[in-house]
Amino acid sequence: LRYGKFKLEGSSFTGREPDEDRYDFDKPLFDSRSVRLSFSPDRHWATQLSHAYIKSPEPSHANEDIYRTTASAVYSIKTLKGHLVNATALWGMNKAKGSIAEHSFLLEGSYVTRKWMPYFRYEFVQKSSEELSLDENMYGHHNLYPVHALTKGSGYDIYNLGKIRLALGAHASIYFPDKKLHDLYGSLPLGVQAYLRIYPGLM
To answer: 185 near 149, Cβ under 8 Å?
Structure first.
């Protein structure tokens, strides 16, 4: 449903994650539902707020349903030189009945020129001892551990074929885990990645 600069959407879907047999179609159950309200005040901004009820998403926790809420804001503008500036802020929360809510947050931005695309990203996520495969006798069963991450990188277009572009890029991420996890992961774990990216003409 659309009204002016607002849009309201609803959906029904299967909450359970796909099984390990990847060559067939899982039976659609339509046992989960979601609703999203979007607001775009002008051509530079896009915001949304959504909420979902997800029926038994994890096979290992068949009796556990998830309530998921998200909110985001995206800003995009062209500079006087024709370069593109993008920024995104996003928050999400998962909540199961009888458990503590798990929050996450993302802030990222990029600056796109004719060839270069430098970008940065900040991430925050709360992970349970079970998700991290920790010894629950030592780290607790319902404890949540915050993890922060900073990423800096850049891409560079190395080949153009019509409107199809091929870019080479790399980035580095540094992580700030909870102090209780330093013995397992170290105080400042670091990750580095190099990649090739293809931008089809339709994008």
So the answer is: no
